[in-house]
Amino acid sequence: MTAVQLPEFSTTPVEQIPSIVSRLRSSFFSQKTRPAAFRLRQLRKLYWAIADHEEELLEACKRDLGKGIFEAMVSEIEWVKNDICFMTQNLERWMKDEKPEDMAWTHKFVSPRIRKDPLGVVLVIGAFNFPINLAFGPMIGAIAAGNTVVLKPSEQCPNCAAMMQLIMEKALDPECYACVQGGIPETSALLEQNWDKIFFTGSVNTAKIVAQAAAKNLTPVALELGGKNPAIVTKKADVQLAARRLLWAKTMNAGQVCISQNYILVDKEVAPTLITELKAAMKEFFPSGAKQSPDYSRIVNLRAFNRIKKMLDSTSGKIVAGGTMDADQLFIEPTVIEVSDPKDPLIVEESFGPLIPVLPVDNLDQAISIANETHATPLGVYAFGSKAETDRVLAETRSGGASINDGFFHGVIPTLAFGGVGDSGTGAYRGKASFDCFTHRRSITKTPNWMEKLLAVRYPPFDGTSKLKQYRAMGILKPDFDRDGRQKIGLLWYLITLGSGSASKGALRAALIAGIYLALRALMEGRIWKGLKG
Ligand code: NAD
Q1: Fold entry, domain 230-411
Q2: CB 249 within 8 A of CB 382
Q3: Is 224 part of the annotated catalytic residue set?
Q4: 3-state secondary structure string, 153-202?
Q5: pLDDT at 519
Q6: Where is the active site (predicted)?
Q7: 297: Cβ below 6 Å to ligand 1?
Q8: Which residue(s) pair with 381 in the sheet?
Q9: Quick check: CB of 434 below 6 Å from ligand 1?
């Protein structure tokens, strides 16, 4: 069998960057990317170029991250192909003007609508851990929304980056879309340019650099950051299930996943069971050990390997499963560590690797307060327990997304909006959210000539208060609440709800009363009697 040939990775000379951006800006203003037909054609060509290079993309994922075929297909290649199909099947519908709801009747005469405008020239900066998904994913949204795009893939996965460039050059219009390769110098040069939006996926530290550069030109940003996500397992949870699901979430891509749980807070009564079950699941997933498994990825590079190793060396916790490492192979075994201190580095820092710290807690109150104190706005929260308990976790924490009774399942639904909150990110994408992320919702009205008489109210002279009265009659809303902030209830509604204030109970009572009324009326009209006879 011949080895798969991959293109060479080479960085883009920084002096070329201004001319690339200005070429894309001219193309944007040529209006080339506006028609749906153009966007659809670009996306469809991209689909087939990805499909035609699947073998090389798989090889690139293998060389860059040791990714197995299943993971590379599901989380990278099939993922972006699916994204393109979803976009192309829905794009024309999403592009249509929207009629806003809840307009005052007077405003309907000016036909208010919301047009979906592209933003302009956008920059997409990718992260290393899902090198294809996190680069092509947002780019697909930006193309669909009618922008011209510069993609800067992660230089930490050079084979994937080079393949994406080759695919873009084969499939996409070079006047509208470009791939810039490189690391800090090249990204810094890109950030000096003027953009209409910057979409960044990566670490919090780099995001601050990106946001500062963007602020100089008031450029909007989407920041997809992450880490430090808590999982909470109560004694009412199915502990065996929790162990399997959390192990899945921490062994995918060798734990290099922004939404995987960073640590597990477990009720101390079931902590020993959780650890036993984690070990059992490890045997089930990797019967000959993770190192031998073709399904278990490697750490991206020695720097990341050393960072994770240092974290493990610095913990005061006890390794209870795993713990082996091999720097030559960039291998770190899935490792379960029992920790007792909520300030342990394994809890407070993002491991972004296959470390599974387990911290026993007294109860759910303590778990929620540790989670909130460790990181108030993580990217994900994962709760295992009774319905009442998981409802409490949702109600008393904040996060970009959450999965109940699972590891990051919400994050693997390709069409569900995905994003952080606070310092885990800003802005969301995927599915329709990807289109919205790169679209400006432009409010438009058109004032007909015949309205001039009606509009006379707005022109001076205002003749004391007469025009003000007229203006108020044209649709100013009246409060439905009193001075104490209570909603005012009409007499009929009060009677129906008997003053309970509960709308759902009230609605039920209203339905009952209406039913009785209709039955009585039917009886009086003799319909029931006739019905029985007939
Ligand atoms: P990173 O911040 O090191 O790199 C991301 C990108 O920024 C790369 O393209 C890189 O070239 C560029 N970059 C790095 N340093 C820069 C600098 N000083 N100036 C300008 N550009 C710079 O992140 P990473 O190591 O690729 O990814 C890991 C981090 O990303 C983790 O914190 C993880 O949680 C987060 N992440 C978040 C998501 C998400 O969707 N929310 C997804 C994946 C990863």
Answers
A1: Aldehyde Dehydrogenase; Chain A, domain 2 (3.40.309)
A2: yes
A3: yes
A4: CCCCCHHHHHHHHHHHHHHCCCCCEEECCCCHHHHHHHHCCCCCEEEEEC
A5: 73
A6: 224, 258
A7: no
A8: 402
A9: no
Tokens at residue 305, please?
């390997």
- Direct distance between the N- and C-terminal alpha carbons of the chain, in angstroms, rounded to an integer: 83
Q: What are all long-range contacts of 497-501, with beta carbons under 8 Å and residues at least 24 apart?
A: none
Q: What is the mean pLDDT of residues 453-471?
A: 90
- The upper half-sphere exposure of residue 373, i.e. CA atoms within 13 Å in the direction of its Cβ, equals 10
Confidence of residue 505 (pLDDT cuts 50, 70, 90): low
Q: Is 428 in the pocket of ligand 1 (CB under 6 A)?
A: no
Say what the pLDDT of residue 504 is.
60
Largest CA distance in the chain: 93
Predicted confidence band at 495 (pLDDT cuts at 50, 70, 90)? low
The domain ranges of the chain are: 28-225+432-442, 230-411, 479-533
198 lines ligand 1 (CB under 6 A): no
Indicate which residue of 258, 338, 389, 437 is catalytic: 258
Q: Are strands 425-426 and 221-224 parallel, antiparallel or unpaired?
A: antiparallel
Lowest mean pLDDT among 125-134, 411-420, 440-449, 489-498: 489-498
**The two structure tokens encoding residue 503:** 């709308």
Residue 469 is inside which H or E element, if any? helix 466-473
Is 176 part of the annotated catalytic residue set? no
How far apart CA 176 and CA 200 sit, in angstroms, is 20
Q: Beta-carbon neighbour count of residue 211 at 10 Å?
A: 15
- Which pairing describes strands 401-404 and 325-326: parallel, antiparallel, or unpaired? unpaired
What is the chain's alpha carbon radius of gyration, rounded to the nearest angstrom? 29
- Bridge-based pairing of strands 229-233 and 380-384 is parallel
Q: Express each pLDDT in 277-289 by its tens digit.
A: 999 999 999 999 9
pLDDT, residue 225, reads 97
The pLDDT value given to residue 497: 62
297-347 per-position pLDDT tens digit: 999 999 999 999 999 999 999 999 999 999 999 999 999 999 999 999 999
Looking at every residue in the chain, the average pLDDT score rounds to 94
Structure tokens at 309: 């190793």
Q: Is the CB of 195 under 6 A from ligand 1?
A: no
3-state secondary structure of 417: coil
* Residue 534 reports pLDDT greater than 50: no
Assign residue 227 a region: left if phi > 0, alpha if psi is -120 to 50, beta otherwise? left
Rounded distance between C-alpha atoms, residue 132 and residue 255, angstroms: 17
Pocket test for ligand 1, best of 165, 258, 303, 377 (most atoms within 8 A of CB): 258
**Number of residues in the chain:** 534
**Nearest C-alpha to atom 17 of ligand 1 is from which residue?**
184
Is residue 65 over pLDDT 80? yes
**Domain 28-225+432-442, architecture per CATH:** 3-Layer(aba) Sandwich (3.40)
For residues 407 and 382, the answer to whether their CB atoms sit within 8 Å is yes
